[in-house]
Amino acid sequence: MGEAPFAHGIGGSADLPISPSLAIAGAVAALVVSFTVLAVAWRTPRYDEAKGERPVPPWLDGLVRSVGFRAGLRVFGFVVFAYAVTVAIFGEDLLTNPIFGIVYVWWWVGLVPLSLFLGPFWKAISPVRTINLLFAKLSGSDPEVGVFDYPRWLGHWPAALGLFAFVWLELVYPFMTELGPLRLWCAIYVAVMLVGGALFGNTFYEHADPFEVYSSLVAKLSVWGSRDGHLLLRSPLANLDTVVVRPGLVAVLAVLFGSTAFDSFRDSSSWVQYIQSTETSSYLLNNLMLVAFCVGTGLVFALGCVLTGVEVGTSRWSLPDRFAHSIVPIVVGYIAAHYLTYLVEFGQRTLIQASDPFSNGADILGTGDWSVNYWLSYHPTLLANVKVVAVVVGHVLGVVAAHDRAIKLLPQRHQLTGQLPLLMAMVAFTVGGLYLLFAA
């Protein structure tokens, strides 16, 4: 039961029938050319929340703002939550139990496309927000207001710790596919969220819920924005510029990017051979490497930011959080490249398993006799190109976002040269990400 049922990652280099050196060289060239073009043609800031936005049709705005629509989303989220709780408690402790796919595939990976195309999806359906709302209704209190004000210095640090706890469970813990540990983790998550909501109100979820922070950051690359409660269409990069700078933002993105990179690394032939040849505990080594990837990613990015030129009196150490939004498209691109086949193929398998949650031959959803479509895996060249393009596009968008922010923040004499350390950090991410993509 300790073996992971899901083939994390993207397959080996045989599944990527293009030249690794050519792909890496092309990606680096794309970043350098993009930066050069930006340096010549992009001299004034172009992105902020007020630029390039326009209202959606009134009927769509009215629909999204309606009580019925929002209640429907909450009901949907709670029904899925109740189903997951039921199969987690009463289902068999088998790999065919759909709870593993619900948590590790639908919840963790599925949040990315849902948030990218629909906006802050987890915030809209979050069952912990729904339960907190019901408690507030019963007690006659306001769910937006807690007993205490959420400490500003705490920022997103609880979310970063929560995300790390989840990726540790998924990627390192040897019994991640046993019901007991998964139930315990989910129970702790729900308990912490409900206590936090009671103490600090809905502000707690916005700042500290690891999945809401994760979903909301990805949603900043969607076309959906809002102002004064009204739905707007907005350029994704202008939307990205609205990421609120809070303590711990870099840590959240470092965990997301670093853990995904580690997931590729742990499947690389060199790491597998080293694990098999050493007498040191593989569990200990994987724990150390997960920490190293997450911390290392954050340090490389932070160093690239603090080495930029700033005005006298401006703290260099404030720059990493202020440039952190530029890492969001890189994270999304790499997650898309790394987990694409995993989401499509094991997402289908989870839907099939969900029709027989108690392993008694039932077909509740009518999907029990479906079969997994492996079309993507049968087209390796297309798959390889899609994954490489996802990584490159993510990094190019990151360079654009960082350049636009640099023009706003840096003194004129450092607006170009001051970006070079950050560009070098992004080149390192590109080379490392593509190398791991091929090495897995």
UniProtKB/TrEMBL annotation:
Tree of life domain: Bacteria
Membrane-spanning intervals of the chain: 22-42, 71-91, 103-122, 157-176, 182-205, 243-262, 288-310, 322-341, 382-400, 420-438
Keyword terms: Membrane, Transmembrane, Transmembrane helix
Coiled-coil portions: none
Keyword Transmembrane: yes
Protein name: Fenitrothion hydrolase
Biological source species: Nocardioides psychrotolerans
